[in-house]
User: Fold these one by one.
Assistant:
Number 1:
Amino acid sequence: MAVSEQHIEKSIAIAKEYGIHRLILFGSALEQPEQARDIDLACDGIEGWELFEFAGRLEEELNILVDIIPLSPPTPFSRYVESKGKVLI
């Protein structure tokens, strides 16, 4: 299954509902969306179990696998994602 612009737009809309103030797309959905089998997102403004709730809702509504990483606290990987990913929010 390819990742479409509609998947990305819906991800942004749901993220805004959760009060997320930074959302970054990275990985295969950014680099080769026509071949991607999941959406990799990094976010800030949400924490704890709500992060997993957000990921579950995305998977349910988008009907595609979703990988979520938090941007806070910063890690070497989150800094890498920030430098290479596409800022959606």
Number 2:
Amino acid sequence: MRRHLIVGRFGSSDGADVPIANGEMSTQLEFVVAKRRLEHDIGSSLDDLSKVGVFPSEMGIDLLVLAAHVQAADTRISRSTESQDGWTREIRIVVPVSDPTRWNTAIPLLQRLLNFLTGDRWTLGFRPRPAGFENTVSDRPLQLIPAPFDCLSLFSGGLDSLIGAIDSLEQGKTPLLISHAGDGATSNAQNKLFGALEKNYPKQNLARLRIWMDFRNWGVPGVESEKTTRGRSFLFFATGVFAGTGLNRSFVLNVPENGLIALNVPLDPLRLGAFSTRTTHPFYIARWNELLGVLGISGRIENQYWNKTKGEMAADCKNQALLAKLAPKSLSCASPTKGRWLHLSTGHCGFCLPCLIRRAALLSIGDSTPYALPDLTAHELDTREAQGQQIRSFQYAIEKIRRKPNLAALYIHKPGPLSDESPARQAALADVYKRGLAELAKLLAGVRATPS
């Protein structure tokens, strides 16, 4: 087990001294290679936003630079070799920012937020950007007509984000969609859906920021990469806020996520840690809104679907015909490329956790998505294999709540604190958890999963 220090640098002239503690392994993360242009797709994102009249603030750029440090550390430091317990890493990052005084006031909150999100122990430090980089944003041009966007919305290529975009557009809004370019399947889904939305809503000035921030060509010497990516939503939220600061007014960043997966209650006693993500948990979103206040950023992050199941989101979508047409093009699978090991095409496996929730959600409105495992009832599934593991876990959770429905009010607290939520909202969260499991129960009726 080693403790890691990631030090951000703004070019070869950035020689600020960053002391290394005993037992720490220090690695540099370079942000400026040529002239003043920021790397890791930050400079390209600034260019793309300027084309649609959006000019992020220095604080917005700081946030995206911080997110790059988090993303690099989270994806390039192995949990299995760099932690004592196979999960919890100790990571310190030192970030060059435009206003260290303000950022230093946010350190306790940021550390709490990141520790909750990834399960690691984060230590943060901020220092001034080096001379010549005090300002990285060109002067905002005089805009006679402001950018048309009245909100921002995360757009992952999944079913929930598709519904969120359709609902916003049907309400007459003009959202700026925010995407992170992932693997080929994810990017393909995002591109197809965005193109279809442009075609169906030609008068609404639809636009998208698509950031590509990948650290496969950067790493910590002698350390393997990490596949769990529990910190990914920090990058997603940061990218949205980064763009929001360029609207030059208060903004809302919508995070479309059904209540069942936002809570992500462990399905069985073993599903903690690695199996329990917190990317859109209410506690996490509340800390983000607290952070924006501390940083003086006039924006807010909201999940308008926090009290709906995925099936309810689909059934209530404001353009059912378009959803039916585009839903098969959306991508929900946790690992869409795993089918190649089974000599199957890239796409939905049909048996991972998000695939099962998707299938249950689309039962009532029709589902034409091709799945690698098309019929869950065709034969008995082995719970020791991937095809049966998630199904058996869902069956276990469904049966517990069927026998004792009142346990839902207790179980919703297992993934994380709900201290920000009123008693009424906590009751609503318990109810959406029960309704979400009820959707799964319909899908899994007659499905047999046993340790063969």
Number 3:
Amino acid sequence: MTTKFGTAILSGKDSFKVGQEVAEKAMERAGTKKVDLSVVFASSAYDYRAVVNGVRQMTNDACLIGCSSAGEFTEEKTAKGSVACAVISSDTHKFFTGIGKGLKEDEIKAIRQASAKFPSVPADYPYTSAILLIDGLAGKGEESVLAALDALGPNVKFSGGAAADDLKFKETSVFVNNEVSLNAVGLTLVASRIPVAIGVKHGHSPISPPLKITKAKGNIVYEIDGKPAFEVWKEYTRQNAKSIGIDVDKMSEVEAIQTFFTRYEAGLMTGTDYKIRWLGGTTTTDGPISFPCAMDEGMVVRVMESPKQAQIASARKAAEIALSACKGARLAGAIIFDCVCRAVILGDDFSKAVDEIKKVLGVSLIGFETYGEIAMEIGQLSGFHNTTTVVLLIPA
């Protein structure tokens, strides 16, 4: 019994040809012509449908999952404006894929549609997990995870991420087999003879006292502690931001505002750690602040910050957590869901964080920069995250 896992990352002008070539190269590195699952992450510079068609042509129409991204990487390199592909051939894992539409309007209906045709898991593949990929602009991060948990049951562990579009914030797409869709969710059920392992970690710490959301609607927060939300954020970041050259009272450009909220995110206390929430959808200083999922009145948050070294160290820690959970099982490869916010914070040092993951795991890996990360694993931070690293390990 074995599982083969190979990756490739390429760029080019012809989307279909790039899809063909990246799949062919990944298959060569995996040492197989039989593909059970392809994983594809593509920059918004490409025609996604053409990329997917190219990959599927080379893999004999094998099951495919993936999404648009804000940066791509494999063990070979980190890149922007590229297509990354992994192929998996396995007799120790079985993969079943589905897509659901209308995520923004009804996440429960979308998840049920995606999982409707999943078969019963074979008795000799007793461990179940799922990979969840969602439209990153639908505003249904946490809600999608809870809907998937309800649809598949409490014994299924989850990992995944929110599709991105190179920080354009216009539209993000999910790929499942030959379908490329907006406002959608892609769901992959994985039945395994040896369980997959998940690690999740962020590098943030609080710089404010607990703050209560006092006026909110959906994913928009208007007031915190009875004051305009943006003003509260500026109050608790003013001095810290000065040390890195940000004057919170003189921000006006959209890019500057989004950079500010990437550095100073929100933390929700969950047990002994914080779940991180990005505020990067905010574009003006005189209005409310927006989040990637619902933020209810009465929720308590803290202003968080994270220096570069903490971001690099947390990536390594996520890999170590996942590796420990494998309990010595031989690894085939890894899928990494890593937030674009971390790439913004780290800049040219983002590759150093990926290098730390590579050092820990020592196997082929594929990853993309997301608009949110998903992890649901017993004993770890669970649900929807931002500026966090999620590591999924596929045993051989």
Number 4:
Amino acid sequence: MEEFSTINPGTMPENRQIRHAAHERLKGNWLYAVLCTLLFCAIETMAGTIPLAGLLVVCPLGFGFSIAFLQFVRGEVEGDDLVTRPFAVFSRYGRMLGASLLVVVLTFLWSLLLVVPGIVMGYAYRLTPYIAHDHPELSEFECVRRSKQMMRGYKWKLFLLDLGFIGWILLGMVTMGVALLWVVPYMETAHATFYERRKSLGTA
């Protein structure tokens, strides 16, 4: 990405640079990013009223949502194609369902110990949807394991990246969630940008 052209290729950019790169990528595409988020949230809300649907639909669709913004960051998806791209995940439904449920179950089990371990391991598994997309040769368990490897030494950095959005998240709460339609795609774009740069450094 052009925003990282002056950064040593062997290092991660600063979080402010990642957020800036995400913001630049969204220029001219905010409408589509917001519509994509609105559609995802609407389906998530409806499916969430039925527990089984919440698992069978929302979990893999959440992976599809993240993957859609990864493809957006890569320039593989543009304009209105972004709005419906999360649904492409259903062409690999079994794999994405398995991977997403595995992340949910593992994070839940860690959370049974204490809240903090659950949060920490949630960050360890954060790259799983991207890895599942990029490496179809890997099993669901291997995707989770690869995410843990790649996030070793980077969990705190990603946590701080998210913390940098706290003001926007609070604004979303004040506006009854309306502003979150802009905050969520901004964060997703930043997360995908984080993954792209982390991937370029190789696997730990």
